[in-house]
Write a structure and sequence with these properties.
(6S)-NADPHX binds at residues 59-63, 128-134, 157, 260, 323, 374, 440. The chain is 40% helix and 15% strand. The protein is built from 17 helices and 17 strands. The structure holds ligand NPW, adenosine-5'-diphosphate (ADP) and potassium ion (K). Residues 349, 374, 410-412, 414, 429-431, 433-434, 436-440, 442, 468-469 line the site of adenosine-5'-diphosphate.
């Protein structure tokens, strides 16, 4: 799915009205009807639940007014609270006039704010995508009042006071919603950790906006769901052999961290690689041969950490980093790898820390290298702390453009940035994956997909991120989130990939 800017969303609304021969008021009615359905199904209010709708002067307020009318007609208790303004949008005014006589409708002022007991529902339709400055005065006071109340809050389109695709000033007045219900496409703001306390759980309601117009709209940010990946993972051909899927080399492990090599190696095998060789220091030999017998083990002459780069000639892709440690000798192995590699590279964990501590190595990164830092590792790579989540995204775009690489930023909604500066947000995964070793599993899986010559660098990365998160979601069904450990992810990589695999008999 594409993440559109507010201006693009407005243009999409207008193009939809034109293409479908409907007025913007009719489109608003469609949105409100869909919202009503969602609200009744998800919140299941009773006929006595007080539902307070706070409506601003624009079309967001118009949505709120239309919803109030529909709730009233369906027999629910709707109270409308209007925010006075100098100007009102045409569709707001039309819906204001359509409000039935029997509905309670009052103008807000600081002396007249409703009692909002626990169990009441608040619908926040003050400001939506048209917000163009921070909230002040009465609007800010109302937001503070709503945030202090015990009521359950549903934000229409976006929590009021939050910008759809830019940071707001710290301490700005922003509604803290339990649910945010938006139309057709998610907004960038929903995907950033700094907005979690405002957005709550978000839902997208399709309202039939024109798919052709969405298709033609150029964007820099995407949200990757299963539909987005359809057809990107080819089926395994009937007459394939292990050579078809590539021979990967994994450079990983040091004394006390051989487990990271085991996890990455297991994930690489479950990711469908043809052959896997793991280079570990001597200390890892028995561990690896016993726990991952499917992998070949090529031990380094040193006992505790890697000191020598093996001949790279046999390999289709090389991964380096999990449990590596940051010994000087291992740094030199990394330097040689960057000099010599002619095949795709996946760099993680200590390989990234070594890059951050020896920035000259960054100049050696071969094009299309895939880096998988979490935010702290990314900060070490750039050497500059991010001001906020939006700034971090811009740092990421600048980094991948400059280095011509692919870079992941791990977390909830893991991000992938491409050499063209396009950003993809992954949709799968859960907090159970916040556990040691989850990242090692991701590295192994990505290595397998980069070794598969049938996949582009972009598709390998997108599929790997999605399947990793999906494996986490499947595993959590069995283990619960708290009980999830990284090894559980490995067991569910196969099923997660199978869900994505194209059928050879379908278009
Ligand atoms: N996308 C879709 O698919 C569909 C979208 N729809 C809905 O339309 C919504 C967007 O509507 P919108 O463009 O009228 O903007 P919205 O946020 O209601 O208000 C802007 C108004 O507020 C004002 N204003 C701005 N900032 C302010 C501030 N800080 N403090 C005070 N005032 C401020 C600004 O006026 P100004 O004062 O700048 O002249 C303007 O009057 C969208 O979120 C969704 O709910 C559906 O109906 C149909 C399908
Ligand atoms: N709250 C979360 N929601 C979804 N995925 C998560 C969450 N927390 C962590 N993850 C995923 O788990 C992995 C953790 O990686 P990392 O931080 O490198 O862990 P480690 O170094 O212990 O292996 C990443 O792929 C990340 O996206
Ligand atoms: K809103």
């Amino acid at each position: 799915m594409k993440l559109l800017s507010p201006a693009q969303t407005r243009a999409l609304d207008q193009a939809t009205s034109k293409a479908q021969g409907i007025t913007s008021l009719e489109l608003m009615e469609r949105a409100a009807t869909t919202l009503l359905d969602w609200l009744l199904t998800t919140l299941q209010p009773t006929y006595t639940t007080p539902i307070h709708l706070f409506c601003g002067p624009g079309n967001n307020g118009g949505d709120g007014l239309a919803l109030a009318r529909l709730l009233h007609e369906a027999g629910y208790v709707a109270h409308v609270w209007l925010l006075p303004a100098e100007r009102y949008s045409a569709d707001f005014t039309a819906n204001r006039h359509q409000l039935p006589d029997g509905i309670s409708c009052q103008e807000l002022d600081t002396a007249r704010l409703p009692d909002l007991p626990a169990g009441a529902v608040v619908v926040d339709a003050l400001f939506g995508a048209g917000l163009n400055r921070p909230l002040t005065g009465l609007a800010a006071a109302v937001v503070a009042y709503l945030n202090a109340a015990a009521a359950f809050t549903v934000a229409v389109d976006i929590p009021s006071g939050l910008f759809a695709d830019a940071a707001q000033e710290p301490d700005s007045a922003v509604v803290q919603a339990q649910y945010t219900v938006s139309f057709e496409l998610p907004k960038l703001a929903f995907l950033l950790p700094q907005n979690a306390g405002f957005v709550g759980e978000w839902h997208i309601l399709p309202i039939g906006l024109e798919p052709v117009v969405i298709h033609k709209t150029a964007v820099d940010n995407y949200y990757v769901d299963a539909a987005f990946l359809q057809g990107r993972l080819p089926a395994r051909p009937k007459f394939s052999h292990k050579g078809t899927f590539g021979h990967a080399l994994l450079l990983a492990g040091s004394r006390g961290k051989v487990g990271a090599a085991v996890l990455a190696a297991s994930a690489c095998l479950r990711g469908g690689v043809g052959l896997l060789t793991v280079r570990v220091p001597e200390v890892g030999y028995f561990i690896l041969q016993t726990t991952v017998p499917e992998a070949m083990c090529l031990t380094d002459p040193a006992p505790d950490f890697l000191t020598e780069l093996p001949d790279l000639q046999p390999y289709a892709a090389v991964g380096m980093g999990p449990g590596l440690g940051q010994a000087e000798a291992s740094r030199e192995v990394l330097r040689q790898l960057l000099h010599k590699a002619k095949v795709p590279l996946v760099l993680d964990a200590d390989a990234l820390n070594l890059l951050g501590a020896n920035r000259d190595l960054l100049d050696l990164l071969p094009p299309d290298t895939l880096l998988t830092p979490h935010p702290k590792e990314f900060e070490r790579l750039t050497g500059e702390p991010a001001r906020d989540d939006y700034h971090r995204l811009e740092q990421l775009r600048a980094f991948t453009r400059q280095r011509r690489c692919y870079c992941v930023l791990k977390g909830a909604y893991t991000v992938l940035a491409t050499p063209d500066g396009i950003i993809y947000f992954n949709s799968t995964g859960n907090p159970g994956m916040a556990t040691g070793g989850s990242g090692d599993v991701l590295t192994g899986l990505l290595l397998a997909l980069r070794a598969d010559k049938r996949l582009s660098p972009l598709n390998a990365a997108l599929l790997g991120l999605y399947a990793h998160g999906r494996a986490g979601d499947l595993a959590a069904r069995e283990t619960g989130e708290a009980g999830l450990v990284a090894g559980d992810l490995v067991r569910f990589i196969g099923p997660a990939l199978q869900e994505l695999m194209a059928s050879p008999h379908r278009l």
